[in-house]
TrEMBL record:
The lineage of its organism: Bacteria, Bacillati, Cyanobacteriota, Cyanophyceae, Nostocales. GO terms for biological process: cell division. TPR repeats lie at residues 22-55, 90-123. Keywords: ATP-binding, Cell cycle, Cell division, Coiled coil, Nucleotide-binding, TPR repeat. This is Cell division protein.
């Protein structure tokens, strides 16, 4: 260490005689970085870049200095610019992988690390590779997007904690939807609070609930609120989390997601736009898609592992495209229509949306009457438009003014409910493809 400090001292003396010597200043910055003087290293790299702004080694060195100080955002700005180019140095990909892992993006971190060592095997970092789930025992070819392939005889699932969430919202943050909330309480909230009563009746915790209705009515928000209500884990699954170009990988991905939920029970497992993963098999031409659906049905049944403690919620805007096998009792045995909020629910939603904003005395009931058929997303748009108009007004007069009832009513008049198009389609299915009574709630809502 003494030798390093002597070298640093000698380099500083040399720079006094030749302050514009870029290689000399770069060498000093690298030495400071190696001895842990990260702030001083940053300053030297900055001074060198002021003399030669486009030099790759200097930019990468500055990014390293940022990373060592915990300035990850600044480091990411530099590194992301590097990785967009085809001639990016391997160390840039390695640093990008470290930054991605720090942000929880494990899949992308694995890809960037593998790309880095493919360009230069000498920069491989075994400790970092183990953090990514790549070890000597598990070849990198067995790592797919940050997840290790299942190994025969290994019963421990790979757990990617980056997909787990702990939502901070609860049912009190959701306006209306009382019937849906009651069903969810029966499925998972009451079993957790009164386990002896449910055990006496032989009723297990969890199950499946399918939510359908027009877009923007709060299905996804309600799923997060459910997890927050019981302080459980929440896993949101999109089509990109499951489907893979290689045969068999989609089924494996789906299995790993269910294993993750079972391992972290109580857990809310939420499939958004579930019709993309559970489409009617008679409409599919490719056998691989049918295999994914079969795997999904098997996981819902809990054939090899129990789903107790896992509440499986799914949302769709097009239930008529769903395979009928998913509606069997024991899978999605509660199929609930989530309509646009009624008058009282619109009042509650508007109160939540306006909370924390500068307000006059607002007649929420009056605004509610002017927003008939508006979805929750439409109501949010009403508040956003009213706020934007107030901001424009404040820019002109220089004085911010609170929102009023008139502002909200005016904003509502400028918007059209987005639910009408959905009901035009749903009405036809409810009238002419409703043999099992699945869409009776739609007919009741439309008063047909």
């Amino acid at each position: 260490m003494t030798t390093s400090h002597d070298t640093v001292r000698a380099l500083r003396e040399a720079l006094k005689l030749s302050p514009d010597n870029i290689p000399l200043r770069q060498h000093l910055a690298e030495m400071l970085l190696s001895v842990g003087q990260f702030e001083e290293s940053e300053q030297e790299y900055r001074q060198a870049l002021a003399l030669k702004p486009e030099q790759t080694e200097l930019k990468l060195g500055l990014a390293k200095a940022f990373y060592q100080q915990g300035k990850h955002s600044q480091a990411l700005v530099i590194v992301e610019d590097f990785v967009k180019r085809s001639d990016s140095p391997p160390l840039a990909y390695l640093l990008h992988a470290r930054l991605l892992l720090n942000s929880g993006a494990v899949k992308q971190a694995v890809n960037q690390y593998r790309h880095a060592i493919a360009l230069d095997p000498a920069i491989a970092d075994l400790d970092f590779a183990m953090l990514l789930g790549i070890t000597d025992e598990v070849n990198t070819s067995n790592v797919v997007n940050g997840k290790i392939r299942s190994i025969v005889g290994d019963d421990t699932p790979f757990l990617d904690d980056s997909i787990l969430e702990r939502p901070e919202i609860s049912f009190q943050d959701v306006g209306g939807m009382d019937a849906v909330k009651d069903e969810i309480r029966l499925k998972i909230i009451y079993p957790l609070s009164q386990p002896e009563l449910y055990k006496a009746y032989g009723k297990t915790i969890g199950g499946g609930i399918l939510l359908y209705g027009p877009p923007g009515c709060g299905k996804t928000y309600l799923a997060r609120a459910t997890a927050g209500e019981i302080n459980s884990c929440f896993i949101s699954v999109g089509i990109n989390d499951v489907l893979d170009m290689w045969l068999g990988n989609s089924e494996r991905n789906l299995h790993e997601i269910f294993e993750q939920a079972r391992y972290n029970q109580p857990c809310v497992l939420f499939f958004d736009e579930v019709d993309a993963l559970a489409a009617n098999r008679t409409d599919l031409r490719q056998s691989s898609s049918r295999m994914v659906i079969n795997q999904f049905l098997s996981e819902l049944d809990g054939v090899k592992s129990s789903n107790e403690g896992v509440l499986i919620l799914a949302a769709t805007n097009a239930p008529w495209h769903l395979d009928s096998a998913f509606r069997r009792p024991g899978r999605f045995d509660r199929i609930l229509f989530v309509p646009p909020p009624d008058a009282s629910a619109r009042v509650a939603t508007l109160r939540l949306l306006c909370h924390g904003k500068p307000l006059q005395e607002i007649d929420y009931e009056h605004v509610s009457k002017k927003t008939d058929n508006f979805s929750g997303a439409d109501l949010k748009a009403v508040v956003d438009v009213a706020v934007e108009r107030k901001l424009q007004e404040a820019m002109k007069i220089g004085i911010p003014k609170p929102l009023s009832t008139k502002d909200l009513v005016s904003a509502a008049a400028s918007l059209k409910p987005s639910t009408k198009e959905w009901f035009a389609t749903a009405r036809n299915y409810a009238l002419y493809a409703n043999e099992g009574g699945l869409y009776d709630d739609i007919l009741k809502y439309l008063k047909i």
